[in-house]
Specification:
The protein has one domain. 49% of the residues lie in helices and 16% in strands. It has a three-stranded mixed beta sheet, with helices on one face. It is an alpha+beta fold. The radius of gyration is 13 Å and the shape is globular. The two termini are 12 Å apart. The protein has four helices and three strands.
């Protein structure tokens, strides 16, 4: 996370090929993460200083597929910090 010189915050998501070899699968998770943050806009608006935030996913597709609820709970924990 780093402050930026814009009037709004930005989010980036990084998923490597270690997560899944298929770009379709990686892009689906990225869309899910972006959708999660669009539903929780108050998280980004709560910062006094607009920032660039990068999330790096360090797990495998199989782990997230089996534990979709725990992954969502983990995202919720991240934004509550």
């Amino acid at each position: 996370m780093r402050p930026n010189n814009l009037n709004h915050s930005r989010i980036g998501v990084v998923l490597g090929k270690k997560y899944s070899k298929k770009a379709v699968v990686r892009n689906r998770l990225k869309r899910d993460i972006f959708r999660f943050f669009s539903e929780n806009k108050d998280f980004l608006e709560s910062y006094a200083i607009p920032s660039d935030i990068v999330f790096i996913v360090l797990t495998t597709e199989a782990h997230i597929k089996d534990n979709k609820e725990s992954f969502t709970k983990e995202l919720t924990n991240v934004i509550s910090l």
